[in-house]
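Internal QA ticket QA-208
Title: Verify multi-chain structure generation after dependency bump
Assignee: T.L.

Test input:
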Amino acid sequence: MTATISTTSVTPTWRRRRSARLSPLLVAFVLVPFAVESVWVFWPALQGFWFSLTRWDGMSPPAFVGTDNYVELAGDATFRGALVNTVIWLVLFGGLSVLGGFGMALVLQKERRGVGFYRAALFTPVVFSLVVTALVWRVFYQPDGIADTLLRAVGLEQLIRPWLADPQTALYAVILPALWRQIGYVMVLFLAGLKAIDPALHEAARMDGANSWQRLRHVTIPQLRGVNAVVLSVIVIDSLRSFDIVWSLTKGGPYHSSELLSTYMYSTAFQSLRLGYASAIAVVIFVLALAVILGYLVRAFREEA
Amino acid sequence: MSDFDPGRRRFLGHLGLAGLGALGASSFLSACASSASGPTTGNGSGAVTIQSNLSSPQAKAAMEKLIANFNAQGKGTASLNTIASETFRTQLPTYLTSANPPDLYTWYAGSVANDYASKSLLLDVSDVWKSLGDYPQSLRTLSTDASGKQIFVPMNNYWWGFFYRKSNFAKWGVQEPKTWTEFLALCETLKGKGVPPIGIGLGDTPWVASAWFDYLNIRINGAPFHRELLAGKQRFDDPKVKAVFTRWREALPYFDPKGKAYPFQEATTALLAGKTGMFLIGTFFADAAPKDALGDLDFFRFPIIDPAVPLAEEAPTDGFFASAKTANPTGTKALLTYLSGVEAQEAYVKASSGIVLPANPKAKASDSPLVVKGKAMLDEAKELTQFFNRDSSDALQPTADTALTKFIDKPDQIDAILREWQAGAEKVFKG
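Actual output:
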């Protein structure tokens, strides 16, 4: 009894002393990365906000124009198109890669003969650089290429069109290769999550007479909540930064029909040399990403509390 | 289960946020643009650095040879730095504004060079021009900035035209057209034979369409109007500009529909394989052509539409300008003097496979029939234009790409397209 009392009374002072004298190693671990991040990430990001309030061609000094760039953004039809395309991209690319990745993970989670081969096959596209992926798909889409040959072989030649040059199909023709790659990546994330579920839970559910759909709905999915946060972050970030595959396949064209916010930002900055306006687009991208992810995190924490 | 306790989840959440920071859409921009990464160069009497975008194998080898020759002469030393052309284009403003820039750059004459000159970024090379007294006045004017000093030294130029295979024209039994009417008749004949008459390559290289706009405009409205339009002194929604598209529309049905999807290199392959009849393109396209096909190539000038309009041709001029901040202006000018000389220009023409005309009037061009014909066509012209982006700016080019590819797809919407083009151009001119 006395022993317990003395421990409880001692512990707080000991804790206080320890927090007052932080270990130098700990300080170094916090401050050094913070200093590096400040120079390479925080400072340029803040500068980006400043540039979004200026008119700047990259050569003469930036001239402050207030919120002119944002006012122009509000009336810019190309920007609106890029915004809509980015939302389409987020929904299709994000949604389908989650569905596809989760489905593949479910199918391939059981250790069976040859399952390693299928997992590897699905993961292979992730290994390629997106620019290489784009080159491969360009061959697929080119006039009289593999896509056209396949359609002709099954008698659907009336569907043939210049896939990447037709404003009706360009965006979707670019989403497909991006998905082809992303599904393998998301699958690996979900596989890791599925492996971490305690088999005893499934065992118990089965004992209680739950069928496989009920086990998926009430055991597997709730257990994956931690992975979902990661997958969502990855999906949102990957969608908003999707640039390389679009740029190497269509450059946002024909006439802005496959333009995303990221490609519009790039062409505004480095082709039109309107760096202030491009910074304003960058700020919008940043706010969008933050809003989606913060929204999810806040909800996740509220559920926890 | 314990793998996903709240602490770890929070950690992963933060990871996501950190990823966001790294994505740093805005940081990416400003990091590239504000911290000018100046290549290490230029110490007083040291080697003159040439930043070159001539990255195709033959052109690169030709430049290397020129620099080796210059170094062997003992008038100074130079070192060549060859950069992929797209990187070069986007980085050029950064090079020029950096604290310690490379000395000399390959680039284009005309409005693009004058733009940099107006920002005091280019070295006054009037000294070099003192020894170039026999250069034609047109090239001197082209190399002179608004304040009257020379800021550019031309190396060579080339021409655009309708290229075709002689053997194919003979097989189809057709002749070169001279006028627009004859041209349309030729298209009709070829179409009747099942050949798409006009090749084009807009996938990945949409700027190729600007050649059509340039030529129709200088044939219908003349070169002075064209230059004013591209300088922002005329409007793209002017009825005179619409007239260009009315003409263009007459030829639209004869364009190869596949041309929208592939780049000009593949359009070249299609032309050589006889899958298209002819192709409006600059001579650089021959770089992508096999050697044995070169002898079979011929071209005709863009057909005359209004004989009253003074004859103008596109003749993009390549050459050099130097940074105003060079630490070694004497060495840089010595190198420029060497490069503009007969010996260097002939050596370049010989070593590079491209069909180009040397800028120095005393230097001999290749004596192939194609080059002789091209030179005669340019000599006959009253006015020379450069090309859409060279007569305006690289910043205006994307507005043209959007407008022209859209017109080719949806010619009915021409009025809306021209309004959008004007709005886009105004943004570019405003900066």
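Spot checks passed. DSSP finds 14 helices and two strands in chain A.
Status: verified.
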